[in-house]
Structures are given as C-alpha cells and as structure tokens.
Specification:
Distance between the termini: 16 Å
Number of domains: 1
Strand content: 35-45%
Mean pLDDT: 85
CATH class: Mainly Beta
Strand order of the largest sheet: 1-28-27-26-25
Largest sheet: 5 strands, antiparallel
Number of strands: 32
Helix content: under 10%
Radius of gyration: 20 Å
Shape: globular
Low-confidence stretches: 1-52
Structural class: mainly beta
Length: 417
Amino acid sequence: MPNFDTSPRGRAARLRRCALIFPLLLAPGCGSGPPGHHDAAVDAAGSDTGTAHDASATSDSSLDGDTLDGGAVDRARLVVLGPDGELASLDVTAPFAIRASAELQAAAVSVKCGGLRCAVVHPSPVDSVDIIDALTLGVVRTYSLARGADPRDATWLDDHTVVVTQYESAELVVIDVAAQTTSAVSLAALADADELPEASRIVSCGHHAYVQLARIDHETGAESALGPALAVLDFDQPAAQRVVDVDPDVMGVQGVALASRANFDMPTDCVGARLFVAEPRPLFSGGGEYQVVDLDTFAASTFPFSNGAQVGGFEVVDATLGWRITHTDFGPGASSHLELVGAGLFPTYNTFSGYHVDELALDRVADLLFFPDPCTVTPSNQACQRGVHAFHAHSGERANEDPVDVGFDAIDLAIAR
C-alpha cells in the first residue's frame, strides 16, 4: 500500500455537513482491478467469432497522459459508462479533462478495467462484452455470449483474463483476451431448485474470484430455502474443480452464506484476506446491513458500518476510513448521501436524482474518490451539481471545484491504470 498523507485539510463550503461518526476497523483494500499479473489457468475452450458492433469514438490525441514530476507520463484514466453504452475517458488528475468519448450504441450495466483495457458488459437482449482501450475508447473486440444469458458484471484476474457473470445462466464466462477465446465455469452446484443461482457482482483477488448469488425463485423473486451466498472460485484449478466448497462438512457444495441478498461492488482487502459486502433492504425494512468475509476461513460476520438509512455502495480507504452512500425517502427525488466515515466530522454530499446512485471509483495511487451525480436542475432541486465529483480520499476535500459533466447519466465508472 502507498503511504498516503493523512494530514487534515479544509472542506469545501458547498458540501452539507453531517455529524455521523462510525468507527471503521478496516485494512487497506485492493480495489476492483487486477492486483498485478497472475498466472491464472484459463481453458481456451473455443475461439470467439464475435466482431465489434457499431460504435463511434472521438479522442484528444494531443496528450496520452498527464506529465508528472520528472517528466514521466501518467497513462491512467477514469472510464465513465452511461446506460446506453456512452463512454468518457478522463484524466485522473485535476482538472480531470475528458480525453476521449464514445458511443457503443447498446445498453450497458458495468465497466471494469484491467491495466489500460476495460470490459463493458451489455445485458440482454444484447448479451455481449466489449473489450475497449481505456485511452481511446476504441473497441478492441466484442465477445458475443449466449442469447438470453443476461451478463451483469466482470472482473479481471490478470491483464488478459476476464470473468463475466450471467444472471440467466448457471455459467460464468471466462474470456482470454490474449488468445481471443472463451470458456465456461458452471455454478450449477450452488444453484437453488430452479437451477439458476442468479449471479450478479463479481470481484477477484489474484486467481480467486467471488460472486454474489441471489438464489431466489426465478419466477416470483422470493428468497429460496438456500438463501443468498457468495460463490468462491479458484482459477488455479481445472475448469471442473474451480468452484470451492467452503464447508466440506456439509452435504453438497457450499458457498459463503450471507445474511441477505448482496448488491453493489465489493471492496476487497486482498493482503488482509477480507471482503466487504453491502446487503441493502428498503428503508421500511431496516435499510440493510454490511458484512465482512474472512477469505481464509470463509466466515461472514456483521460489519458495523450502517447508520440506519438504506444501505448503498461503499469503498474502503484504509484501517480507519471508508466512503459510504446511503439513501433516505426525503428530498425532491431519489436521495443519495455520500460521506467519509471513520475519523471525525466530515461533510456529506447530498444529491437527488431520478434513481439511487451507488457506484464509486477509488484510485489508491492518486488518493482520489470519484462519485457520479446524474441529477438535473429543477425548481425543487436548485442545488443540483451534475457530473463526476472528485474528492481526496483521506481528507474528504474536493479535488474539483466543479464536477465534470460527461454529457450523459453515469451509471458506472472504473480506474484504468
């Protein structure tokens, strides 16, 4: 972990203050991208025949990155995704200039980056994954998945291996970007009676991946007898043996049992072998909770991070700090409240838009936290500040006085470095 400066700094006056202090007993996380180069065993079961679909991109080629002290060039980007496949590639240093933009012209739900390549996930009816260049946003290759499989999220095991979840299939798709092949890993052993585990978000630590499984009745949405879980996969093993049985003493293959259905990205502390999960519920049902999973013992326990509001997305900064999004029923729209928690009084950024915002991007190298605000100025929402907001991750101080308006509603964002 880098040795970040933790000295206190001033807070911007435009932020609304909220005195909500909750201790964080965290270890530094690893982020959602690949933690280096790992030799994952990936089966090249077949060659993909997909080609890049219609897309347009514009790029400012005058500068490939920010010049750092000593003349080095920082070729990192913040990649922002819109609901219809809109993309923007921003510098990760102030003033966070937009260096490229693109339109993939297809509904999208997730963007995850490994190095300077990103995987953009297109759900049904598109059912595909675009591999894009983070600097230019050009599509390198499109991988077409099974019709109706409904992919939801992706993670990079290393700089060439992407694992994709599918909500309407019991299989994960493994993409070898270097070999341009795809293979599958079955989660059927963890499925409930309808034979679909309903896989959604995924994250990885080295050659291990962790997948949120809803395990609900696929027709009614009711929770099954098995209940929600976290699937654990070991990609050092052959394809048929990659699903880890976390409790061999119990009959059948077991995942990590969760208290309730998980959602949102999962912060991970790969060195400390911990993974953090948000389990939201409607406000009238208590708002939900957070859990922390020990990745050595696979024990899940309550993580005391909630404040009584509806649980939203979050990020772990270090042993005492974390960023938390919560939701309430008050205000001129769906409310999302972003705050830095764990080291005293910090401001809360409040926004009201057409839907809850639950996505964050933490850049540990630049020590910045990015938050996309899709609000629209209306007579009842004059305080709206639409665009991508940047905050210093440790101090809570604004890194940009005015948010960067990328020209579309941002639904996900990721650091490419």
